[in-house]
Amino acid sequence: MPEASSAADEPAYGRGLPLDPDPAQAEALLTRASTLVAALFDGVGDRPVAGTPTDPAFVAGLLADRPGEAQPIEAALATLMEAIAQGHESRTGGHLAYIPGSGLLTAAIGELLASAGNRYTGLHAPSPGAVALEVGVLRWLCELFGMPEGAQAVLLSGGSMANLTALVAARERHAPGRPQLATVYVGEQAHASVRKAARTIGILPEHVRVCPSGDGLRLDVETVRVMVKQDRADGLVPTAIVAAAGTTNFGAVDCLGRLADLAADLGVWLHVDGAYGGFFRLTERGRARLAGIERADSITLDPHKSLFLPFGTGAVVVRDRRALVDAFGEEADYLRDLPDADQLPDLAELTPELTREWRGAKLWLPLKLHGLAPFVEALDADLDLAAWAHDELAAMPGVTTCGPPDLSIVGFRVPGDDAAQDAALAHLNAEGRVRLSSTHLDGRVVLRLAVLSHRTRRHHVQYVLDRLRDWLERPTTGTT
């Protein structure tokens, strides 16, 4: 019988932190990290959006960095914190550009524990507890959106992957083996990820029909009807209508009920991109404005937007679980030893991923620690702020808006040409306390004020309004 090896016989992996720190080392590392995490959240709601100006030398150093000698913990963590600090502070209440993403500490803790546990959740058998926890949250998503028995939700990396997953299911349901004949119908304000997804799964770019609308904001139902009938007459295979439950540009909500009627009448898949606006369904006003979403064949959601989770948390909800299995289910000889699913699904047969991170923990833990009420209150407050901002903007001489917001994004223009819009935007953002962004509508530049962070307060929006009044009252409007 061989003698037991001594500590001196153990391999030396280097002079830095062991790959498996002992309990004391692990506790020291986590204690130091927890101090840094607490600092990241201290007063974050009122931090300037501008953040720390980018240091070109620091960025160049990171690009040149390669693994080598181990660093002391303090030095490595200091570099990591400096990398975080570079660029815009997206978590602050003054971040009113694009679609704000604020992030929750409790979600980060859930993600840390999930990563530390490192449970494999592509199949149910290796980690039934982890899969069950995630599936419970997924069932809640199906119930929240009024889906019937047999529906299925899946967590993904974000809205882009959710849109792609939904379109694959639609293609396999309506145009199996014929992607070159499949057609998809989108509005002028559809997210770019829809076109990218269609192209990725073999649908020809010219078969992604961009349907013009009367107001430029919402998908026109009758235009879609005409296009679908014409394409079918031409031998093509109308596959999916993609509606919006809050467009990225202006937060506009399509006529979901009428589009559901149309899709049912024509036998076409209805996908609703609710990445930005879907979770407003938690509020009374949101349920009214998103009426009809429960009739969709699939829905994209981004908990990292309107549930305030860290980036990398998306979801798709599909009315018929079988559609996902038909699209992504695949047998593999090397998995033959695993038992068949009973109560728990194998998530790998529902998406392109076999290996996947355990995403459920960072959604489950915040809901359990906070309860649902604070999320509803925050979304209601966002609706209130956007409505108030719109009314204030509409009352300013010379300012035109894109109409009262459907949800929490307000589009507007100041007097003057596109150059004046760009100059006004630069003025609003100049001090770095807030950040707005711009887009195009009917070929003209439009400014956007997007309220979605749970940290955005009235004083953040008031600052924008005051800065805009200063701009409008300048002797020569249109210059910085």
Descriptive overview:
The protein has helices spanning 23-41, 56-64, 73-85, 105-117, 128-144, 159-174, 192-200, 221-233, 256-266, 284-289, 303-306, 321-328, 360-370, 373-394, 418-429, 458-472; strands at residues 152-156, 182-187, 208-211, 237-244, 269-274, 298-301, 314-318, 400-401, 409-413, 437-441, 444-450. It is an alpha/beta fold. Strands 1-7-6-5-4-2-3 form a seven-stranded mixed sheet, sandwiched between helices. A four-stranded antiparallel sheet has the order 8-9-11-10. Helix 10 links the parallel strand 5 (269-274) and strand 6. Helix 4 (105-117) crosses helix 13, helix 6 (159-174) packs across helix 12 (321-328) and helix 14 (373-394) runs parallel beside helix 16. The longest helix has 22 residues, at 373-394. The model is unreliable at 4-8 (pLDDT under 50).
**Which parts are unreliable, with pLDDT below 50 for 5 consecutive residues or more?**
4-8
Q: Please report which band the strand proportion falls in: under 5%, 5-15%, 15-25%, 25-35%, 35-45% or over 45%.
A: 5-15%
What gyration radius follows from the Cα positions, in whole Å? 25 Å
Shape: globular
Listing every helix as H and every strand as E from the N terminus to the C terminus, the arrangement reads HHHHHEHEHEHEHEHEHEHHHEEHEEH
Kindly report how far apart the N and C termini lie.
Answer: 84 Å
Q: How much helicity do the residues have?
A: 40-55%
The profile of the biggest β sheet is: 7 strands, mixed
Number of helices: 16
